[in-house]
Amino acid sequence: MSTDHQRLARVRHPGGCAYARLEVGPDGDTRAVELSGPPFAGGIATGRQWPLSGVSLLAPVVPTKVIGVGRNYAGPADPGAVRPADPLVFLKPPSSVVGPDTPIVLPSASAKVDFEGEVAVVIGRRCRRVDRTRAAQVVFGYTLANDVTARDLQHADGQWTRAKGFDTFCPVGPWVRAGLPPAALCLRTVVDGDVRQEGAPSAMIFDIPALVQWLSAVMTLEPGDLILTGTPAGSAALRPGQTVVVESPHIGRLRNPVRAES
């Protein structure tokens, strides 16, 4: 949907919160240029701007829904798993979404909460029944996400809503990059400095156009909606005091500390 590599963010500034376009000035410093709304909803520059160091980054979009895709990476993550014939999808509530540097809170109800680093697709226009050849026309850009999952509750419940739905279980950010080719969407997950996951789009069982086509045949996709495209091998439990980072050289770096529920 977009042809440049702009960075779209949501920021908390001295006067409130706003969508912003991140721009590098002639002095080399990055500034947050305020928008009247998200660009996919007609937002334009208001004339106000702040140094990036003077604002806090929030989750870059406010989705009506977060759609997750399970078991979408070929590899040794689950050797006994049957390759799905169709995408295995689930929903995370919008209330689980948090931004960069917000703590992931480990609930007392679970003894095993896992990280799952993922690339997330940001939908840019309302759409239904999109053919895969037109998928790029409805995608605004890409961001990073952590599909945090209470693994023990997932197994106990037999379905995934509670396990993936706790508050803070969907960190997203740091911003949305528009105009990237899907081949650039490599990622890795780092916990306390140790690389735990690495993934490339070539390892996805269902690529992004296939996911957009399949999901839009089921439900209307709205601007700002997120599609979490699946996690590569290496997901493991988090402990209080750790820091988990999902990063991509073409998107950015999503960092979140981990703490226990108080």
Automatic annotation (TrEMBL):
<dbReference type="InterPro" id="IPR036663">
    <property type="entry name" value="Fumarylacetoacetase_C_sf"/>
</dbReference>
<dbReference type="GO" id="GO:0046872">
    <property type="term" value="F:metal ion binding"/>
</dbReference>
<protein>
    <submittedName>
        <fullName>2-hydroxyhepta-2,4-diene-1,7-dioate isomerase</fullName>
    </submittedName>
</protein>
<dbReference type="GO" id="GO:0018773">
    <property type="term" value="F:acetylpyruvate hydrolase activity"/>
</dbReference>
<dbReference type="GO" id="GO:0019752">
    <property type="term" value="P:carboxylic acid metabolic process"/>
</dbReference>
<keyword id="KW-0479">Metal-binding</keyword>
<feature type="domain" description="Rv2993c-like N-terminal">
    <location>
        <begin position="7"/>
        <end position="60"/>
    </location>
</feature>
<keyword id="KW-0413">Isomerase</keyword>
<dbReference type="GO" id="GO:0016853">
    <property type="term" value="F:isomerase activity"/>
</dbReference>
<dbReference type="InterPro" id="IPR011234">
    <property type="entry name" value="Fumarylacetoacetase-like_C"/>
</dbReference>
<dbReference type="Pfam" id="PF01557">
    <property type="entry name" value="FAA_hydrolase"/>
</dbReference>
<feature type="domain" description="Fumarylacetoacetase-like C-terminal">
    <location>
        <begin position="65"/>
        <end position="259"/>
    </location>
</feature>
<dbReference type="Pfam" id="PF10370">
    <property type="entry name" value="Rv2993c-like_N"/>
</dbReference>
<dbReference type="InterPro" id="IPR018833">
    <property type="entry name" value="Rv2993c-like_N"/>
</dbReference>
